[in-house]
């Protein structure tokens, strides 16, 4: 148990040293822009909203398929597949799907609002 705690402490100390070094170097020019703006400017110019949305759906589908395959492998007793890997993968897939559901609900709500507008 002492060895695990020592490794955790060393990991935290290493992260603190890295953060200290970054703080001493000063902010990068890209640091002042909000994260969302960085993502938009770095995305491809020709990519449409439908393509981005399809990519997000495909990514969520892949995470669910990976979680299912890990669960099946764990049930079969495949070497190297741990319970915590399965649980984390399943939880990531679940959270991703819930987020997608919320996005869909917001899009439907926005569509309904637009349809209710007088012409």
Characterise the protein shown here.
This is Flagellar hook-basal body complex protein FliE. It is found in: Bacterial flagellum basal body. One of its GO terms (molecular function) is structural molecule activity. Belongs to the FliE family. It holds the Pfam family FliE. The chain is 79% helix and 0% strand. By secondary structure, the chain is an all-alpha fold. It folds into two domains: 1-42; 46-119. The longest helix is centred in the C-terminal third of the chain and has 34 residues, at 83-116. The protein is flat.
Brief descriptors of the model:
bacterial flagellum, cilium, 2 domains, flat, mainly alpha, 119 residues, FliE
Strand segment tally: 0
Termini separation: 70 Å
User: Biggest sheet, in brief?
Assistant: none
**Topology as a string of helices (H) and strands (E):** HHHH
Large-scale geometry: flat
Could you name the ranges where pLDDT drops below 50 across 5 or more consecutive residues?
none
The structure class reads mainly alpha
| Total domain count | 2
Question: What's the alpha carbon Rg, rounded to whole Å?
Answer: 22 Å
| Overall mean confidence score, pLDDT | 81
Number of helices: 4
Strand content: under 5%
State the helical fraction. Answer: over 70%
């Amino acid at each position: 148990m002492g060895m695990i705690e020592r490794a955790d402490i060393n990991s935290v100390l290493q992260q603190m040293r890295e953060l200290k070094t970054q703080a001493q170097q000063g902010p990068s020019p890209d640091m002042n822009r909000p994260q969302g703006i960085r993502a938009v400017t770095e995305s491809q110019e020709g990519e449409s909203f439908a393509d981005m949305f399809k990519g997000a759906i495909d990514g969520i589908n892949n995470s669910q398929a990976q979680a299912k395959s890990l669960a099946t492998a764990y049930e079969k007793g495949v070497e190297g597949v741990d319970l915590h890997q399965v649980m984390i993968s399943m939880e990531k897939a679940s959270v991703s799907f819930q987020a997608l559901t919320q996005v869909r609900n917001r899009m439907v709500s926005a569509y309904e609002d637009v349809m209710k507008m007088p012409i």
